[in-house]
Predict the 3D structure of the following.
Amino acid sequence: MLEEVGRRKVYYGDVYVLRFYNRLDESKKGEIACATAEEAQKWLEAFDQSKQQAEYELIRGGSARNKLSMESEINLDEHRPRVRRYASGLKRLIKIGQGPEVLLSQSSNRANGGPDGYYERDGGDAIETYQWKCVRTINGVRIFEDVANSETGKGVIVKAVGVIEASADTAFEVLLNLEKHQRYEWDMLTGDLELLDSYDGHYDVVYGTFDPRWHSKRDFIFSRQWFRGQDGAYTILHFPAVHKKKPPRSGYRRTKINPSTWEIRNLNSSMGSDSPRCLVTQMLEIHSAGWSRWKKSHCSKFERSVPYALLCQVGGMKEYIGANPALKCESSATFVQSKLSSVSISNAEYNESDVKDEFYDAISTDSSSSDEEESENGALDKKEAKLKLKKTSDANKELDSEVAPVMIDPSQFSVSLRKGKDDADTNCWSTPSGKGFMIRGKNYLKDNSKVTGGDPLLNLIGVDWFKVDKTMDSIALHPRCLVQSEAGKKLPFVLVINLQVPAKPNYSLVLYYAADRPPKPDSLFSKFVDGNDMFRNARFKLIPSIVEGYWMVKRAVGTKACLLGKAVTCKYLRQDNFLEIDVDIGSSSVARSVIGLVLGYVTSIVVDLAILIEAREEEELPEYILGTVRLNRLKLESAVQLEE
């Protein structure tokens, strides 16, 4: 396993740390320290691709549907020469300091890949409620207002959007860098910053001062929380904060920085150019009074305010990077600190001809963006995602038509979380339609077109909200579980999703989806239910959408589909009439950060989730939604204690 730990302070500066370990023996572990975010991203891609190639080699000699359900069940005896070739290649790359580029190039030509051979470049997979209107353009940076929510009286959500001629990694590095000589060149507000505390590699607290000349001196404290999506896109959250190291200071007026987010994602290069480009979006919440006056007049007091200075940061960064071309091509050495006592791999030469086989595609995610943002990239490939609002075909072909369907009555099942009466109800669940989600259409392999989801294949019959002392797997075997009831045992098939939420205490949100018939033999659904874990990890997909709630939580969660088996640790239990999937959210530092933010606002948010099996072959399209759930303003204290 390879996990992104985040930034770490060392004696000569900041590094980006990756941790690798053996799931079966965590004493075998090590760390890779990368000088830049771009280097860390390359290592992540290289490890993932080499892992997939090795997995493919293991099954190349036999059936791809062999039940290699757990790592401990894989017999390596007949495949050691092939596996050693990849391990040897990786060892040589580390040893000679070439970095992961060679490993990446060995497996870049794959079917179903995106324009760069690894990721797709489409937008979000859930329909958002924002309605952005461009109200001003300043130095090539567009300023937008969310007019859909401007009448709520809770402030105005605005954003600045600009295209920067650099990679997303470069823009991210510039944004997080605290060195004064660099920030003075582009940031007129937060140029003087001091690091107060750094936590889990994805979160820190900084203190800053600002002398606006026309007002008294000001100081401020804010937290920065960041994470990188599996497509290389960054999300950075800024919250006003307090810190015991910096009490109010004489001669300075303590100012609260507006809550804001940064979203940085790569764009395709312009036609005829290989230069990287990225789309930088800064979004913030401001009071409506000053904003309204500024829209009507170019000269107003708003231009001397903190929100205006924040909105100018995108333009400042754009000009700074444009004036410093060296930032775009910086490369730094990577070093490895290995904690392995010994590595037993062969020094046999690597044969490049052995990697021409295709294997499971890598995860495809993207940060959510508006239609206006997409228009910045006028030279996008013609195969870029096209959203088509039409319904998908009937998914019932995935169930066995030769078996008579049974009537499913959800009222006969006892669960700990009740079903909601209406949308205004709280601490409950309901089942939204699939119309709020975008999934792959029939022609996706030709034009990347997506369609609105149809009715789910499976029926959500209940939700359990458990409190547990420690993370609990195989929860379907517990006597209190729905599938262990007499009514549950009579169902043709039940899909149990156990979302393990890391907190103090831990929680388990358990979703029960029932089918009125068993899976149809040889269908995609059947291959997923009875297949091996490698296949399941490559296909099990979740689409989130915050329907109601604080706008910064919406930006943090996003609306892009995620292959959960690639993002976090998933365990599978196939037994009797059910398949259980245990999703360990705490296994990823990024997922822990996001869920921690969500739990802070959980009583005020409404979240929709859709689960599906990713379609990658012509005969598997169009995709269909397995099931949906809407969670309405959950209360942590309502969780029921579940004893082992």
About this structure: The first helix runs from residue 37 to 60. DSSP finds 16 helices and 28 strands in the chain. Confidence is low (pLDDT under 50) at residues 62-76, 92-99, 101-122, 331-393.
